Amino acid sequence: MTSYVDATATAQEHCEAMSALHPDLSERYQSLTTLLTKKLFHQLTVSVLEFVSTPETTLRPTVDGGNSYLALYHRVVLSVDKKLNQLSLARIASLVAQSLLGDAPNGDLVAARAVFENLLEKKGRLGPGATLYTESKLALLGLALMQRGSAVFDGPKHLESTKSMLKQNDAVLSELAEGTESDAAFVHAAHYECAMVYRKAVGPPEAYYRVAIQYLNYTPLEVLSNEEKFVLATDLSMAALTGDGVYNFGEVVQSPVLRCLEGTDNAWLVELMEASALGDVLGFQSVSERHASAIAAQPALTGRADAVKEKITLLALVNMVFERSSSERTLMFEDVAERIHMPADQVELVIMRALSLGLIKGSMDQVDGTVNVTWVMPRVLDEVQLKALAGRFGEWAIKVSKTRDNMGEQTPTFV
């Protein structure tokens, strides 16, 4: 009898033992046994993934009091691991490792790390996608424990190794071509989640903002808990407001994640972000005054108050330019001062700052007190802005049509 058959027989025995130990899960374990016996490896993978994704209902102790997910992984999954989709194998391993930690500061750290490290010994078989996924989850394990206050990891050393891993995998990710779009999404999400947690720990906020937006692009909100959504929406808003070079607030305002703050203690952030995205200086000031105590409790905002104020002023200028048609973008300094709510003698400095940051392009006439804007930065627009833009396109189309007709009438016809 081959070792493969022996391993499969052991796997079946384990499922039968767990079925007898936990009658309420008997049907689930019997189903795994059937799929294993019939060698329906794809269906087996899907079933195991589903099983280990619901610890609140399926995680139980084994006969000897061990972790049932770890036992399932060792005795069933690894008995046929060569037959499974390797990224799915890595996802199962990640869920098993997560179950070993629980909510304790350290959990069974040794066993959790061993799951990842043993899998990474098979890099040649895993392939680049599953390897990147596993490395990201292993690094994330250490970062998560550091957030919990665990002293098991050497913080500085782990942060440095994580930085090197992320830099190396950035290049791998750009060249990665998984078999399906969903597979690629899992790999990207794991990488950007690790990068996001790393950047939250070391900064700067603009770097956190960039990777958090990427994480959202690959992660459905429904897979996150309410607490995770709350933290992500809060951190993303703070990073947008305080991060250098972050002016495209529409990416956050238009994301469903921001709505997760509604009805919470941080609901004021929704108002603050919406006012900021519109460059509504008075609206921003109103929200700030009404929620002064909540804002004062956020060191990220209070520590960069001047930078945030400048950002809102610049966004007010950008929105003023956007709201005008391309033929009406010569702005008087007095009009700009009224819009950004600043003295007229400071408008020139604001315009120079916007030009230097690349938010607008154009030229100033200091004698006439005007600025001629030829370009404004592209942004994510809300429904009102999109309708306004559509209206301008309509007006432009009418002008083009009239010009064409006029040219046709003025063009002589030769017979």
Describe the structure.
The chain has 415 residues and is mostly helical. It folds into two domains: 242 residues, Serine Threonine Protein Phosphatase 5, Tetratricopeptide repeat (Alpha Horseshoe), CATH 1.25.40; 101 residues, Arc Repressor Mutant, subunit A, CATH 1.10.10. It is built from 22 helices and three strands. It is elongated. The model has no long low-confidence stretch (mean pLDDT 88).
Could you tell me the mean pLDDT?
Answer: 88
Low-confidence stretches: none
CATH architecture of the largest domain: Alpha Horseshoe
| Strand-pairing-aware structural class | mainly alpha
Overall structural domain count: 2
Query: What gap, in angstroms, lies between the N and C termini?
Result: 96 Å
Q: Kindly provide the name of the CATH class of the largest domain.
A: Mainly Alpha
Spatial extent as radius of gyration: 29 Å
Structural shape = elongated
Please give the largest β-sheet.
3 strands, antiparallel
SSE layout and pairing:
Blueprint: H1 3-21, H2 26-37, H3 41-52, H4 55-58, H5 68-77, H6 86-101, H7 109-120, H8 123-147, H9 155-175, H10 181-202, H11 205-218, H12 226-242, H13 250-253, H14 256-259, H15 268-277, H16 281-290, H17 292-296, H18 299-302, H19 305-322, E1 330-332, H20 333-340, H21 347-356, E2 360-365, E3 370-376, H22 383-410
Antiparallel strand pairs: 1-3, 2-3
Helix pairs in contact: 1-2, 1-5, 2-3, 3-6, 5-6, 6-7, 6-8, 7-8, 8-9, 8-10, 9-10, 10-11, 11-12, 15-16, 19-21
